[in-house]
Amino acid sequence: MAHFTKAKSLHDWLNQRLAIDTLRRVLATEYWIPKNINFLWAMGMVLAITFALLLVSGIFLLMYYQPNVDLAFDSVNYTIMQEVGYGWLWRHIHGVAASVVFLIIYIHMFTGIYYGSYKKGREMIWISGMLLFVAFSAEAFSGYMLPWGQMSYWAGMVITNLFSMGGLQLDGLVEWIRGDYIPAQAFLNRFFMLHVLLIPLAIIGLIVLHFGALRIPHVNNQDGEEIDFEAEAAKYKAGNKKESKVIAFVNDFMSKDMMVVSIYLIFFFYLVFYHYDFAMDPVNFDPADGLKTPTHIYPEWYFLWSYEILRPFSTNVGLIAFAFAQVIFFLLPFLDRSPNAVPASRRGLFKYWFWAMLIDMIILTGMGKLPPEGIFSTIGLYAALLFIGLWIVLPFITKFEKKV
Amino acid sequence: MKELLILAVVTFFTLVTYYLVEPFAHSQMHKHFESDGFAYKDLPAVTKKGDASRGKDLVSACIGCHGIEVAGFQAPMDAVSAAATFGVNPPDLSNAGVVFDEKFLANLIKNPAHALMVEHKFDPAKGQMHPMSEYYATGDDKEQEVADIVAYLRSIAVKQEELTPKMAFETACGRCHAVNYGNWTQIGEKPKFKKKQDELAFETQLLDYQDYLAKYMGTLPPDLSMYIRSRGEHYIETFIENPQNYLKGTAMPRVGVSAESAEKVIEHLKDVGDSKRHERETVGKYVMIYMLIFAIFAILWKKEVWRDLH
Ligand code: HEM
Predict the structure, then answer these.
(1) For residue B167, what pLDDT is reported?
(2) Among A258, A260, A300, which would you mutate to test the B interface (most chain B Cβ atoms within 10 Å of its Cβ)?
(3) Which of B10, B229, B304 sits opposite A282 (nearest CB)?
(4) pLDDT at A1 over 70
């Protein structure tokens, strides 16, 4: 057993037992971050804060929500929104955060793509990040079922139906997922469980993994410069903070993160109080009705790009394209064959690839919501083909990229 | 400087995406109509000046079907029997004079199916009579008599500023639409029951009423509790002004409310579907002020910490 001495203070007492000084050093004061970064590097912290907002508001909603097909709609729209003190506030925070978190995730992802932060030892950061993306998608989808409105019901119907389409014919699987032939009580109950327990647990675990994956490679920087962290840290510790290329996670980086977070929160709460409609589809304020199909069925905005990759093709091809879209981002670190981990602006053809991919996904998102008719359908088809094409050419254009 | 440029790029793409999935998508998916200000331009204007004292006698033509409680006329039938007879319970006319537009009322009395825009359902040539019969003049100046009735109805109604949103809703929409969150059913407010038997009796009456109504309308009119969120103010306003615009051939009549009453009806739908809106405004203000102060401190802290760094 280790040797314990009589503690001189509470700090000392804890330190002997939990090594809090070491922990603090390794995780905070001597966790080195490059100085040459911009506000986009605060998006990770913005995501962490948004997740905290989701968790806290979710806990409050959970106290009054009823996972029952006859009660769910009213428990949300009447009990929570109108009877319980500040229930409306928690619901609007939860709804807006669920939508905004995806905006930030996409910004965070495209930041990583732009600066090549998924390469040279940072592959696990990327992969854990993609796992987070998948987990958040599942969380958002399961949460969308809970108010048991028209869109909950019909989105649940359409998405689970995917498995029975075309050559898949997995009707058994569809029934297994639903626990019934149609979305009903069993369906609502299990999505409730997933939403409030299993997926949040997975998300918390994945966030720990994601943070852990960052610790050894450290984060990238604005110029893709390779930094000798030992040498720069020595300079910093010797007091040459100005010359050193690194800063400490706490307080240096944290103070900048907090600045960005504070500005983000102004934007966030503006949405919560004055512009929440975009995050809560009007159609979902009609109670679920299995006999009345809504005129337009579409997923929330953050799923539209992949939905649009499914739609313009025949059933089987569409399913394959859809499956492709779901997994392909995982493979980015391996499909990008170039050794350069520098900003896209300095990477030859990849520069164009980056902007083409970004714009294409925005077009897919726009078309995904519109009824698949006429010109929109054609644009959607070409955008989907371009998406697939871009991934196919990626290994080739990056293979021949000049080393910088 | 560079950070501002990056922020501008991020903002630009965010706004483009927002534009595509919200305003643009909605403009493509939904029909859009502007309000005419409840002018009912298709209906001819009232040319005669009505006399309320003469109208007082002429409403005897109405009380065979309608109650006028303020004038001491009880409804001739209870709601369920009325629905059994007419398909729907004719509304009490105490406040009809203020809820409904004056010109509309006159036209309604002369030709209900036309004013209500339900002629596609009620064609006398095919023997489909509207349950509210046209007014048959007692003398030979029908125009004058109609104007008198309207003048009378306006004279007994409460004043515009005394008309509450709830009263406006009950008179104009309450016979067809339930509003669960406002405790309203088509046969009136749902009372608190001491005995289960009474509650069941009420439920039975309500179900009977709804059966007749559904048969009359072809469908049970929806509960409007959350319509302020599911359809929004603009849709509801332009929908009640002319339901045929959005839903061609629908059984929902043009109700003929005045512009002021339409506002009140919508106010009522907000009171039941978005009752915390005033609290949201106030709390919103304080939270925004708090976040601004928080941001100022966060920026100062960053400046303080980074002074040593570059
Ligand atoms: C939704 C939950 C997520 C949280 C809470 C989160 C959090 C963070 C944090 C705190 C950082 C360090 C600071 C920064 O560079 O922003 C980071 C870095 C990173 N994240 Fe995430 N992240 C999430 C999702 C994702 C996703 C979906 C991806 C993409 C697949 C991703 C990829 C990355 C990459 C590549 C880095 C390294 C950036 C660099 O080295 O410059 N993360 N994340």
Answers:
(1) 97
(2) A258
(3) B229
(4) no
Q: Structure pTM?
A: 0.94
Task: Give residues with Cβ within 8 angstroms of B85, minimum separation 6.
Answer: B77, B131
**What's chain B's length in residues?**
310
List, as ranges, residues 177-196 from B with C-beta within 8 Å of A.
180-181
Q: What is the pLDDT of residues A359-394, one digit of tens each?
A: 999 999 999 999 988 899 999 999 999 999 999 999
C-alpha pair distances (Å), B124 with each of B95, B105, B173, B252: 30, 21, 25, 19
**Residue contacts between A and B (CB atoms, under 8 Å):** 133
Its ipTM equals: 0.95
Question: Running DSSP on this structure, what letter comes out for residue B69?
Answer: G
> Does B197 reach chain A within 8 Å, measured CB to CB?
no
Average confidence (pLDDT) over B264-274: 98
List, by residue range, all CATH 1.20.810.10 domains of chain A: 16-297
**Which pLDDT score, from 0 to 100, does residue A167 have?**
79
Q: DSSP for A64-107?
A: T---STTTHHHIIIIIIIIISTTHHHHHHHHHHHHHHHHHHHHH
Q: What is the mean pLDDT of chain A?
A: 96
Per the structure block, which two tokens stand in for A329?
């981002």
Q: Tell me the CATH number for domain A16-297.
A: 1.20.810.10
Q: pLDDT by residue (tens digit) across A107-127?
A: 999 999 999 999 989 999 999
Q: What is the mean pLDDT of residues A187-194?
A: 98
Atom of ligand 1 nearest to the CA of A118: 35
Residues 40-99 of A with CB under 8 A from B: 40, 74, 77-78, 81-82, 86, 88-89, 92
Give the residue, by CA position, lying nearest to ligand 1 atom 7. Answer: A44
